[in-house]
Design brief:
It is found in: Membrane; Secreted. Pfam families: fn3. Its main location: membrane. The protein is an alpha+beta fold and 186 residues long. Helix content is 31%, strand content 26%. It has 2 helices and 8 strands; from the N terminus they run ββββββββαα. The model has no long low-confidence stretch (mean pLDDT 79).
């Protein structure tokens, strides 16, 4: 049913560089009419959100989809824009964004080396941050433990001193506890 003046539909629509909140769509345009741009219809499979991206005066055969929800199913279709109108929409392409926690996408065959390196760098950074956080927590734990230990010692000293004070006895009847003994015997 395609109109003779309309350009052919894009083919080989593929989704690459899939991340949690973005993906790149690319496609080929068959030989035929002059194509002056493209239009992409992106929608969530649950129908919550649709976005229409339209670019004219471009020979680009790819487009970055940004601001996607993580771990969600999307459907995209691409149209070529010619001088006399738009092509039929391409075949529907399904893709699913990653969860934030996913290390690498399942279709890593599409991944270029550049994005792989980028992902690795991000991961190292996150591990570094986690190590710092853990170290800080451990330090605090140690400080608190030390403080408690000292506090207990002080409490012990107090209760011992009090016991001694209340004992009705002459000053010289406690030879087993020389003054300052506690401090020295750390």
């Amino acid at each position: 049913l395609s109109h003779p003046d309309r350009p052919p539909s894009p083919v080989n629509v593929t989704v690459t560089q899939l991340k949690a909140n973005s993906a790149t769509v690319s496609w080929d345009v068959p030989e035929g009419d002059v194509v002056i741009g493209y239009a992409i219809l992106q929608q969530r499979q649950d129908g919550q959100m649709q976005r229409f991206i339209r670019e004219v005066n471009t020979t680009n055969r790819a487009c970055v989809l940004w601001d996607l929800a993580e771990d969600a199913d999307y459907i995209i279709q691409v149209q070529s824009i010619g001088l006399h109108g738009e092509s039929q929409a391409s075949k529907r392409v399904h893709f699913r964004t990653l969860k934030e926690t996913d290390r690498l996408p399942s279709n890593s065959s599409n991944q270029g080396d550049i994005t792989m390196e980028g992902l690795d760098k991000d991961r190292q950074l996150q591990t570094g941050e986690i190590i710092i956080i853990v170290a800080v927590l451990l330090m605090w734990a140690a400080v608190i433990a030390l403080f408690c230990r000292q506090y207990d010692i002080i409490k012990d000293n107090d209760s011992n001193n009090n016991k001694e004070k209340t004992k009705p006895s002459s000053e010289h009847s406690t030879p087993e506890r020389p003054s300052g003994g506690l401090l020295r015997s750390k």
